[in-house]
# Entry
Amino acid sequence: MTTHVTITRRATFAAAHILCRDDWDDEKNREVFGACVTDHGHNYVIEVTVSGPLDPETGMVVNLKHIDSVLRRELIDAVDHRHLNRDVDFLRGVIPTAENVAMAAFHRLEPHFKPSRLVKVRVVETENNAAEVTAD
# Structure
């Protein structure tokens, strides 16, 4: 039996967004999204969890420098100090809820940890709100 270990790495980014649907009127948007229907921002925390067997030479599942590099290149550089609705290509046409940001992050990061496996992305939007996407 192969034993797998998980490692979780955190990073942060600051970004603005607005939650609304263009095809809804102001009243419906306000009813569904509340105060988030106007431009505002968050200091996000993203946690990436990778699983795999330990490398016998290093004692690591994956080098934390590699996780940091992938996070920076594939996500942080694209979203940090940006407006998620207007400035981020991979979020165009998507309502940038914490759930959708977590889903987009998972799909962007997932191919870059082979032979280990990305098992979870958690995006903390506020101290009261976080979204997680887990691998099947």
